[in-house]
């Protein structure tokens, strides 16, 4: 580890901290329906959408109506994207002449982008046409992110209101998230990416003459526009197979900085919006503090592990002062690769600028563990916020049991109904991840897809189901996922991780909205101070650690201990 590396990491977090408040205040105004600087331009467009679709923006929905609208919209998005992928050969903007995407891969890909997972069992530059990239996956990058933001805002209203029967209007929240937040920010970031050297063209490729005198065909396409919403919407799906390690997706240290900044900005600022909308900014900062502490700890451990180098390679004569550079781009080094890895898995982004499977045992453990904590550091846009609020409810419930009082959160009493739905939500991840991992580790044809035998191979399978169930989308590497078994089961994991989780969360929102919002009393446990932050961190670690530690012990932990002993598998 170096001083320069820590300075790079610190400046990035400071930049994000600087933007949290202004962007958070802006989004709070957007979702309250208040006038913003963009209203004169976008207001008429927003109204036109409502008139064309027959939506009454003043008519709100209860939690069930809001949830059903979200599910119907997601189903329509899945069917549309699946059709684009299956009909790709007959659609325009296909200069490469790519054939239709096979049925099982099309199912996996359509589910992936609709659920904001962006797991990719294909190489984008050799599989998808420009039309599929733009009208298919990029459109869903916007819509799936907007859906997550809408759900988080609905949950926020449930805590802000008293004796309410409605949570807002899904169609209005989704349109505003897209029109006022994601679209203008994406235009700005895309232009910045173009200035940094990312391609933005409808050409299929360019032919370059190599130093050896051979011709090399280099794929091109509308990269910058997809890259912008990929990061701002915490989607993570890359135009190219190697994602942000590709020089056309991430050519310089500055583009790498912008990638990470864009990933964090909306998710972190939305937590501040939450504090603003519930009338308690300190509560927003408390949640941000818990997220930041865990995320920074993940960055520190990953950076330390990778900077130590690999003892096995050291024994072969490799200088340990260089650290572990396997699977990393020289233009980024350990510090910015470790930062990217922790941020992309603490979020539910899934983009990578290095190969996580090439990290040391401990370095690879951290991204895996951060995903297993529930993708709440700060998680995907919207999904991270409502996931963290579920942990907050569990934390105050535990605090209430300790002191023998009915727990409260922001003036709402937390009772058995809320805890039942909260436990249904938090048990989804371990059930899906551990269940599918155990089955895949027993089936010969599933085991045949791993790239490395032993504990690393188990990590490949465990990482795949953790990433998909957590709607992250990053890959450990080594696993051949484009098979009927993995395309199908990983797709099911994505569906359950998104929708089986969010339905009980919305049921909690409906229950909380109907409760009377009581003022704080002398006996109220404060949830906006250091004590609550510590308790919240403890609950997150306990739930993640106790559920997944046995599996981690058989995979990356064993691999780490073996590496220290100089053993290979």
Describe the overall structure.
The structure is a single chain. The chain contains 20 helices and 4 strands. The protein has helices at 3-32, 39-53, 63-86, 103-114, 124-127, 130-160, 170-195, 223-232, 253-277, 281-307, 311-315, 333-346, 361-372, 383-403, 416-426, 428-442, 444-447, 455-469, 484-513, 530-564, and strands at 205-209, 215-219, 408-409, 412-413. Helix 2 (39-53) crosses helix 7 (170-195) and helix 6 runs parallel beside helix 14 (383-403). It is globular, with a radius of gyration of 23 Å. It starts with a helix and ends in a 5-residue tail after the last helix. The relative contact order is 0.12.
Helix/strand-derived class? mainly alpha
Percentage of residues in helical conformation: 55-70%
Distance between the termini: 28 Å
pLDDT averaged over residues: 91
Order of helices and strands: HHHHHHHEEHHHHHHHEEHHHHHH
* Poorly predicted sequence stretches spanning 5 or more consecutive residues: none
Characterize the biggest β-sheet: 2 strands, antiparallel
Strand fraction: under 5%
Radius of gyration: 23 Å
Strand order of the largest sheet: 1-2
Number of strands: 4
Task: Explain briefly what this protein structure is.
The chain has helices spanning about 5-30, 40-55, 65-85, 105-115, 125, 130-160, 170-195, 225-230, 255-275, 280-305, 310-315, 335-345, 360-370, 385-405, 415-425, 430-440, 445, 455-470, 485-515, 530-565; strands at about 205-210, 215-220, 410, 410-415. By secondary structure, the protein is an all-alpha fold.
């Amino acid at each position: 580890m170096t001083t320069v590396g820590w300075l790079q990491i610190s400046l990035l977090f400071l930049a994000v901290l600087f933007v949290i408040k202004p962007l958070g205040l802006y989004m709070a105004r957007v979702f309250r329906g208040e006038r913003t600087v963009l209203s004169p331009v976008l207001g008429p467009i927003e109204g036109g959408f409502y008139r064309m679709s027959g939506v009454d923006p003043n008519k709100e929905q209860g939690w069930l109506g809001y949830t059903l609208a979200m599910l119907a919209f997601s189903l329509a998005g899945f069917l549309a994207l699946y059709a684009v992928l299956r009909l790709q050969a007959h659609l325009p903007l296909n200069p490469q002449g790519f054939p239709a995407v096979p049925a099982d891969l099309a199912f996996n890909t359509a589910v992936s982008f609709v659920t904001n997972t962006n797991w990719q069992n294909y190489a984008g530059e050799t599989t998808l046409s420009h039309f599929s990239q733009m009208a298919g996956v990029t459109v869903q990058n916007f819509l799936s992110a907007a859906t997550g933001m809408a759900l988080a805002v609905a949950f926020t209203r449930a805590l802000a209101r008293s004796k309410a029967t409605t949570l807002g209007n899904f169609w209005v929240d989704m349109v505003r998230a897209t029109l006022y937040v994601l679209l203008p920010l994406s235009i700005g970031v895309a232009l910045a990416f173009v200035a940094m050297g990312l391609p933005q063209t409808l050409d299929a490729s360019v032919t370059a003459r190599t130093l050896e005198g051979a011709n090399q065909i280099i794929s091109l396409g509308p990269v910058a526009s997809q890259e912008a919403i990929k990061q701002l919407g915490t989607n993570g799906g890359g135009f190219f197979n190697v994602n942000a390690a590709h020089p056309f997706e991430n050519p310089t240290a500055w583009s790498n900085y912008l990638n990470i900044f864009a990933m964090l900005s909306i998710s972190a600022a939305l937590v501040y919006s939450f504090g603003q909308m519930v009338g308690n900014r300190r509560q927003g900062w408390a949640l941000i503090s818990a997220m930041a502490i865990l995320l920074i700890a993940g960055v520190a451990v990953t950076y330390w592990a990778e900077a130590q180098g690999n003892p096995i390679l050291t024994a072969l004569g490799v200088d340990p002062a260089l650290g572990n550079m396997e699977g990393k781009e020289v233009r980024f080094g350990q510090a910015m690769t470790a930062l990217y890895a922790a941020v992309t898995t603490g979020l539910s982004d899934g983009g990578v600028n290095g190969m996580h499977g090439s990290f040391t045992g401990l370095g690879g453990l951290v991204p895996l563990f951060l995903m297993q904590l529930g993708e709440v550091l700060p998680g995907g846009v919207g999904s991270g916020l409502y996931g963290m609020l579920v942990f907050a409810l569990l934390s105050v419930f535990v605090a209430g049991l300790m002191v023998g009082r009915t727990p409260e959160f922001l003036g709402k009493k937390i009772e058995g109904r809320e805890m039942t739905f909260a436990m249904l939500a938090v048990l989804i991840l371990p059930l899906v991840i551990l269940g599918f991992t155990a089955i895949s580790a027993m089936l010969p044809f599933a085991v045949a897809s791993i790239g490395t035998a032993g504990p690393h191979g188990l990590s490949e399978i465990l990482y795949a189901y953790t990433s998909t169930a957590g709607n992250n989308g990053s890959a450990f590497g080594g696993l051949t996922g484009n098979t009927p078994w993995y395309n199908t089961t990983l797709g099911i994991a994505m569906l359950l991780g998104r929708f089986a989780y969010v339905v009980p969360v919305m049921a909690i929102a409906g229950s909380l909205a109907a409760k009377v919002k009581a003022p704080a009393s002398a006996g109220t446990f404060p949830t906006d101070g250091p004590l609550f932050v510590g308790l919240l961190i403890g609950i997150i670690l306990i739930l993640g650690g106790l559920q997944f530690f046995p599996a981690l012990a058989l995979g990356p932990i064993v691999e780490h201990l073996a590496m220290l002993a100089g053993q290979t598998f």
